[in-house]
Amino acid sequence: MISVSEARVHLLELVSPLGTELVPLAEAAGRVLADDVAARRDQPPFAASAMDGYAVKSAEVELHAMFKVIGEAAAGHGFDGTVGAGQAVRIFTGAPIPDGADFVVIQEDVTAKGTLITITDAPGDNPNVRPRGGDFKNGQTISAPRLLTPSDIALLAAMNIAEVPVARKPDIALISTGDELVMPGGTPGPDQIIASNTFGLKAMLEGLGAQVRILPIARDTHSSLRTAFSLAEGADLIVTIGGASVGDHDLVGEVAADLGMERSFYKVAMRPGKPLMAGRLDTSAMAGLPGNPVSAMVCGHIFLAPMVRAMLGLPPLQEVILSAPLAAPLGQNGPREHYMRATLTEDGQIRAFERQDSALLTVLAEADALLIRPPHDPPREIGETMSYLRLI
Amino acid sequence: MISVSEARVHLLELVSPLGTELVPLAEAAGRVLADDVAARRDQPPFAASAMDGYAVKSAEVELHAMFKVIGEAAAGHGFDGTVGAGQAVRIFTGAPIPDGADFVVIQEDVTAKGTLITITDAPGDNPNVRPRGGDFKNGQTISAPRLLTPSDIALLAAMNIAEVPVARKPDIALISTGDELVMPGGTPGPDQIIASNTFGLKAMLEGLGAQVRILPIARDTHSSLRTAFSLAEGADLIVTIGGASVGDHDLVGEVAADLGMERSFYKVAMRPGKPLMAGRLDTSAMAGLPGNPVSAMVCGHIFLAPMVRAMLGLPPLQEVILSAPLAAPLGQNGPREHYMRATLTEDGQIRAFERQDSALLTVLAEADALLIRPPHDPPREIGETMSYLRLI
């Protein structure tokens, strides 16, 4: 058996960034910026008014000063002339500051009479001018890799980036294996259950930025598994679920080996989770997850999520390990790293659920964290600080 | 001027849950469960083995006991007969426990010779049996409303729910207004800038579960605005950006009033944000956001996000207000509630950015939090606890 971190290192060796594609800006949110992009202009592209008011010369600004209004500057419609001594231009937020002016007296500080204005409230020192390029300058870059947020999308728009170079989405094929499985909506026989892992993993992996295909369930025969692998051809990552140790046989391993897979490892010292295998099959990375529903989902969080991030060109997520004080004591941990289904209390403590059987999807659905216990972790008291992964 | 919380109450009065649609399970992640759903079966559907081993009668389990193996039970293929005294059935994880047996001796505790097995390691008290219905029982429900996570999807699959009743996605039409705006990819004139708000808001609102259309930019004329409103017809929510106070005119308000909108309010005591308006236009709710890029995005977080949640049938998100100690002091706040662009430090403190101008998209893109300051909040020292909203 190997440790969780050794297994993760092996898995990450199987994948690499997938290259770049251009997508329209409106479809770039949640994608990973793959190349640095440079602003195509200054923002603002001109010195602009930050307020509604009157553009004047700063040297003339003082209480009771009077100006003649000679024109108007609105957003999209600047004032073409020049502001001279004793002159003002009516100006609105976002409009270009006219030549000759360098100060905007806000309209609340002014009394207007016809085309004359008087400063009737102390205007302060703030010129209310946004300098040209004050937000960003032509050529200023956003650095890749970067998971693009809504704010990033707004910024890319303002930079006039209509098409965005993003990492290609990993193509992941999910194969669940087992004679006991029936697809949701089917009618299970007396010894059968509904396939749930592929659906949960698809949702998880798509949320991380992958494109996921659920392949037909593979039966516990060589030919059925071979068919499933052939349908998965061309995927960046093939994930099998279950069957890694079916009874006395290791059907998935055998078929994968027949197809030329070099297996990297087999068993990982974790709960829930073992057995687990991985390797390469032609151009695809391949990972074999255990069939227990909770084990499969936890392995998805622990192993597949970092692989997806790596394929997207994102750095590993070490920093996502959080910590919180225990809300209830825990006994001694065994020899395997244990990812306990847990919940965060309102006052920020963490509490492991009583029932940790890896078959319990109801418990997983209530969990919002996986409490991490290293191998042989000693008994823990209330208030001790424990590491956890946040589930979303 | 009205307060942020008053404004939010008004806005929430404009919307209500939108009703339900059925979607295939594979498309239900991230949607909001709209009706309670009930499991269509017990899980497991039979008492099942939790381990690989041998199914026997618990009364016979003791060190050195010997059994004759009379058959095999695998997942999907139960054993049809009954386990009698002195008998055992080879069994694998997930297989039905055969009639007559109620205990699984794990294979590591057994020595096998032909069809005879002997218990050679103390088997302990755990029967390694998952009772029928131990995860969930037929008819057990998942309660609506609930934002469906990957784990929920796995659970729904196991319950054999192939189609899921979810809240219809809010249809949101975004109209940016202003003669100064050009779409990304266009060639702006000397007084023009690139429309960024609609792109950022689309990404944000789609991430919250809405379906968003960006309409053509409306020019600062009655006819152009009227055209835009006609294109938005049928939307659950129409959002205009900018133009709520264009110079001395309030074009959006005038045109909306012509079209029959009753305006609910106009100015909100917040930074960044005012002016802001809202009302109803036929069957649509309507919200008018300010045109400053950061103001529009912050108003999206503060006002539109709760509206989307309400249309999806989700409860308000009071609990999402977090708190953290200040990393740098803050001066006195003015009369308006201030949502300061801020960042969380590695050790969990919060630091507001120096530059809080509502035109700075570069600052917003670096922010991962909005630090919330109530009106007239006094000066704050390092270490004082401040409220914030997490930006994602």
Automatic annotation (TrEMBL), chains A, B:
Identify the residues that the record assigns to the MoaB/Mog domain, covering every copy: 173-310
Look at the named UniProt entry and state the broad enzyme category this protein falls under. transferase
Record's InterPro entries?
Answer: MoaB/Mog-like_dom_sf, MoaB/Mog_dom, MoeA-like, MoeA_C_domain_IV, MoeA_C_domain_IV_sf, MoeA_linker/N, MoeA_linker/N_sf
Cellular component annotations (GO), alphabetically ordered:
cytosol
CDD domains in the record, alphabetically? MoeA (cd00887)
Protein family per UniProt: Belongs to the MoeA family.
Could you identify this protein by its name? Molybdopterin molybdenumtransferase
Q: Which organism is it from?
A: Phaeobacter gallaeciensis
Q: Which gene encodes it?
A: moeA
